[in-house]
Design a protein that fits this description.
The structure is a single chain. By secondary structure, the protein is α/β, with parallel strands linked by helices. The protein has one domain: P-loop containing nucleotide triphosphate hydrolases (Rossmann fold, 3-Layer(aba) Sandwich). It contains 9 helices and 10 strands. Strands 6-7-8-3-9-10 form a 6-stranded mixed beta sheet, with helices on both faces. It has a 4-stranded antiparallel beta sheet with strand order 2-1-4-5, with helices on one face. Helix 3 packs across helix 4 and helix 4 crosses helix 5. The longest helix is centred in the middle third of the chain and has 13 residues. It is globular.
């Protein structure tokens, strides 16, 4: 198995009202150290389920998830502290994860305390916020006082303050206007951690990632470099995805 964060042959079936639906069918996916990986596909393809498995928020019915050779499964906050120190998450909608009653500085500092990170938590939080372009003027503001792009940068700062080795992001620029989208993409592109993004936005994938896996109906139907998949897609579903985005960067501009 590739070193890093990896899922191997994971399967997940959900049963509701007496009927079953296979969300994942023997999916294997890895994020190596320093890797830049995207998982793309339409809604319902299984992207979010894969992400939940990689974040230890759900368990596969079969197969394994491992982080640097250690088995990963959902558990208590205490039992997963080692995992959360190494793997952090940027949600699609920060409004659902940022407490509107708390200051930006407190929101970013709290995970450092909960994870038992050494050092001055407020200083580390301030440095993380500065790294995403939010200076002293923003530290005591509340999420309701910020724009959508600023809140997304707070969510990124919160995730990277503990210096994780692996960062997972779900549709990190979905719904942002072009200027805010560019700000968030620039921040993500400059991070030192390994990055996995789940997205249907192929232009963001081109900007941020080197490798991409295409999901369809709970399976990975094609995997390869961003360049290869955009210039010579092999699977009909991949070709349909690319054809739906006519203004992607030309091949020479792709990673």
């Amino acid at each position: 198995m590739t070193a890093g964060l990896a899922a191997t042959n994971i399967t997940r079936t959900y049963v509701r009202h007496g009927s079953s639906r296979t969300a994942l069918d023997a999916v294997s996916l890895s994020l190596p150290p320093a890797g830049r990986v995207a998982v793309v596909g339409e809604s319902g393809s299984g992207k979010t389920t894969v992400l939940r498995m990689l974040l230890a928020l759900d368990s596969p019915d079969a197969g394994t998830v491992e982080l640097e050779g250690r088995n990963v499964r959902p558990g208590s906050a205490r039992s997963l502290r080692w995992f959360r120190r190494l793997v952090q998450y940027v949600p699609q909608d920060p409004a659902t994860s940022l407490d509107p009653r708390r200051s930006v500085l407190d929101l970013v500092a709290t995970p450092l305390r909960l994870l038992g990170i050494d050092g001055d938590h407020r200083a580390k939080a301030g440095a993380a916020l500065a790294a995403v372009g939010l200076d002293q003027r923003y530290l005591q503001r509340r999420p309701t006082e910020l724009s959508g792009g600023q809140n997304q940068r707070v969510a990124i700062a919160r995730a990277v303050a503990c210096e994780p080795r692996y960062l997972l992001a779900d549709e990190p620029v979905s719904g942002l206007d072009p200027e805010l989208r560019e700000q968030v993409l620039s921040v993500l592109a400059g991070l030192p951690s390994a990055l996995l993004i789940v997205s249907h936005d192929l232009s963001a994938v081109v900007r941020l990632c080197r490798e991409v896996s295409v999901m369809h109906d709970g399976r990975i139907v094609e995997t390869g470099s961003v360049r290869d998949l955009l210039t010579d897609p092999q699977h009909p579903y991949t070709r349909d995805l690319i054809d739906a985005v006519p203004r992607l960067a030309p091949p020479q501009e792709i990673h």
